[in-house]
Amino acid sequence: MQIRLDGRAALITGGSKGLGRAIAESFVEAGASVAIVARGQAALDAARAEITARFQGARVAAIAADVSTAEGCAEAASRAAAELGRVDILVNNAGTSQRGAFMTVDDALWQADLDLKLFAAIRLTRAVWPGMAERGWGRVINVLSTAAKAPPAEGAPTAVSRAAGMALTKVLAGEGARHGILVNALLV
């Protein structure tokens, strides 16, 4: 089944490589405009060049921002809306796999993991939600890991932040439906 996204605009974090880039390419192929967000401008520029070379006429914004910070989330959301006109689809994909034995994970690593995975999703969703609700159409996709459901030993902090992301997804799904905003998780 081919799903079309003509006229839709998506903001994808972690969009310069890996799964985020693959999602961006799929959305572009389906007709969407995309804003790929990551920390490194050079990697973003390379990804944008390759995507636009593969898909002639693709509209791709490459936005360098650190979404582990409130300022980075605000910058990513406002620039995506400015460059694409709006954000209809948000893919919260930024993240790394930080794992260790519970007693070896210090506060700084816990905080960094929660800021990048959980708080980025909270802040970015909060930034784009009002426009989606006003238009009566929106999609939020939170990329999680299977550890969100079955956390392994020595899986902290990733398993915990991903489980929190799953709870956030469920809260948002319950609230979004009445506004035409569908919220789902992608477990990888």
Please provide a written account of the structure:
The chain has about 190 residues and is α/β, with parallel strands linked by helices. Helix content is about 45%, strand content about 20%. The protein contains five helices and eight strands. It has helices spanning about 20-30, 40-55, 70-85, 105-135, 160-175, and strands at about 10-15, 35-40, 60-65, 90, 100, 140-145, 155, 180-185. The chain has a six-stranded parallel beta sheet with strand order 3-2-1-4-6-8, with helices on both faces. β1, α1 and β2 (about 35-40) form a beta-alpha-beta unit. α3 (about 70-85) runs parallel beside α4 and α4 packs parallel to α5. The longest helix has 29 residues, at about 105-135. The mean pLDDT is about 95.
Q: Characterize the quaternary organization of these chains.
A: single chain
Mean pLDDT, nearest integer? 96
Rounded to an integer in angstroms, the radius of gyration calculated over CA atoms is: 16 Å
Proportion of residues in β-strands: 15-25%
Q: Strand arrangement, largest sheet?
A: 3-2-1-4-6-8
Sketch the major β-sheet. Answer: 6 strands, parallel
Which structural class do the helices and strands define?
Answer: alpha/beta
What's the β-strand tally?
Answer: 8
Number of helices: 5
C-alpha end-to-end distance:
21 Å
Fraction of residues in H or I helices: 40-55%
**Low-pLDDT stretches:** none
Overall geometry comes to globular
- Spell the H/E element sequence: EHEHEHEEHEEHE
